[in-house]
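Model it.
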Amino acid sequence: MTTRLRFAPAPTGFLHLGSARTALFNWLYARHTGGELILRIEDTNADLARPELVDNILQSLEWLGLDWDGEPVRQSERTHLYLDAIETLLSGGAAYRCDCTREQLDARGGGQAHGYDGHCRDRARPDGEGVAVRFRVPESGVTGFDDIVRGRVEFSNVELEDFVIRRGDGSATFIVANAVDDADLEMTHVVRGEDLLNPTPRILLVREALGAGEPPVFAHLPLIVNEQRKKLSKRRDDVSLTSYRERGFLSEAMVNYLALLGWGPPDDVEVRPLAEIVELFELTDINPAAAAFDQKKLEAINGEYIRALPTRSFADAIAPFVAVEPWGASVGVDELIDVAPLIQERTRVLDEAAPQLDFFFLDEPARDAASWDKVMTTDDAVPILTAALDRLPSAEWTSESLHALLLTIGESRGLKLGKAQAPVRVALTGRTVGPPLFESMVAMGRDEVVARVERAARDLGVPVSD
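Modeled.
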């Protein structure tokens, strides 16, 4: 039997990290088993059926590299199936109409402890405007299922209220739509977040009443929590996949990291090609404990993927981030290729690249006041710059030779290389930290290096001839 899974997001404006992880785990298991992944858009709510919201989901999945089989299934186009199912439940006595208003429920004390009080169960209410349909939950017994991640899960039926399957406006609810779709589309597995554990017994009851046959295998994924061990929240945390994409996280790194949120490879090798993750992925290996979202770990993994990029690919990747800088509008990929390798090892996220490269393309480096005061006011700054100006015009222009030159200048003053090169670095870049100095000098060129050292020396009161 072909394994069939589905990813069923509601189009809420962006794909958040939890939904992206759910999509990935469904995709991984479908591809691992040679099965199919169905993309189902849960847009029965008219406000969620807008094309731009659906497009955001499709674009996010495509960025992650997660494909699906066949055309996306839109629940908004299947309402006739849900309403037919509701009529079947009504005619079979598994559901009933309810015209209770919220005010009436409140007047009766808000219903019973576990929800609706069953007031309309045996009242045979006629249909009409504002009339809902409720499912008649058995008054005894349990509804349970075996979950791959959580083991046996059971709910006492007496704890479940007679839940709504058709709203007062005539639209079907999430529960009946899911029950009908999973049966109609022949889903063999349902892999979704732990927050959807509680609706599962209701969905199973509807399936059983419709005679839908054996239910799918369930796997409810652990919650993703932040550093404070609180569930990720769009009100508090950065959970939008688009946000991470815009900041310069690579899709391959994001997929690799999301795969580790609740699952781990048996050999503990975490950073690896997606094809290997597909081969190793098993639902039975998912840990039921909450998965902590670690921004620093994501950045570290992203850095590994960045370092593995060919130079041209890295230059292409950082070009959009350079282009938005005031100095970067005229800087193309060909110019970046010469200097990109100098920062590739130091870059964890692509938006870190441009600030490291600005001094190459500015007419004058932007001086960091703290760096200037720390380095250029020492007793060694002027002698080092003076000695450098004496030797740079005739030096062999290789990183090895420039390294040796500054090393010699430092030794003449009893300084280690780090101290000796600091004034030159600040003169060239405006700050004390940055890409490797000697490789940067080679890329910048002799004339520009000499001109910047002269400018710094003049500003320190050294007479420098034009």
